[in-house]
Design a protein that fits this description.
198 residues, 2 domains, flat
Length: 198
């Protein structure tokens, strides 16, 4: 009964959103929280193409992809390059009610790309320097274009993405989602000592 009420209420919200946005310019479309949450879920579960297909075919229902992405960015825990998120991992493990984990490290190829991260005020995409086997966090902050230009010409760009994953293991064998402990770009240049220190 309660699920039927929420289903009817959501359908009413969908129709109300489409009608209210019908007479507005596209730049003035408004969406309430339930529509934004629906759009975020649709984007996560269906992907970019599904979200864009529905947005284009049902005018006024869903916000644009940049709005969905900024909404997701504001509510999720951002991963900073090279930051090992031990505190969040402990919180996640206590939520899963386990102290047993399987840890893994993997590397995958990426297209080398340098971008500016507004939150950390740094450039991401250059291979970070290793210190005791771990990447230095926020290695490339600058306000100087000439310094950035120098980095672009002299530093190696990351062509690999290194992940450290944690898989909780429950004693009652319940399935748990893996946790990303850390992610950072690399150019695959390291020493044996770096591996041992890590």
């Amino acid at each position: 009964s309660q699920s039927n009420d929420s289903s009817v209420k959501f359908k009413h919200t969908v129709v109300e959103t489409i009608i209210s946005n019908h007479d507005r310019a596209k730049s003035r479309y408004c969406y309430n929280d339930s529509i934004r949450e629906f759009a975020s879920c649709l984007f996560i579960l269906g992907g970019r193409n599904v979200s864009e297909f529905i947005r284009l075919n049902i005018s006024g229902l869903l916000p644009t992809l940049p709005i969905i992405q900024s909404s997701l960015d504001s509510i999720t825990n951002r991963i900073n390059e090279g930051d090992f998120r031990y505190d969040l991992m402990c919180d996640y493990l206590s939520l899963q009610k386990t102290n047993f984990i399987f840890a893994s490290e993997d590397c995958t190829g990426v297209i080398p790309l340098v971008i500016y991260n507004v939150q950390s005020n740094t450039f991401i995409g250059f291979a970070p320097h290793l210190e005791d086997g771990l990447p230095k966090i926020n290695t490339f902050p600058t306000k100087s274009f000439s310094k950035f230009e120098n980095w672009f010409g002299t530093l190696n760009k990351s062509h690999l993405l290194n992940f450290h994953m944690i898989q909780p293991i429950n004693l009652d064998l319940k399935s748990c989602a893996p946790f990303i402990l850390s992610a950072y770009g690399t150019d695959n240049h390291f020493t044996t000592l770096d591996i041992l220190m890590r």
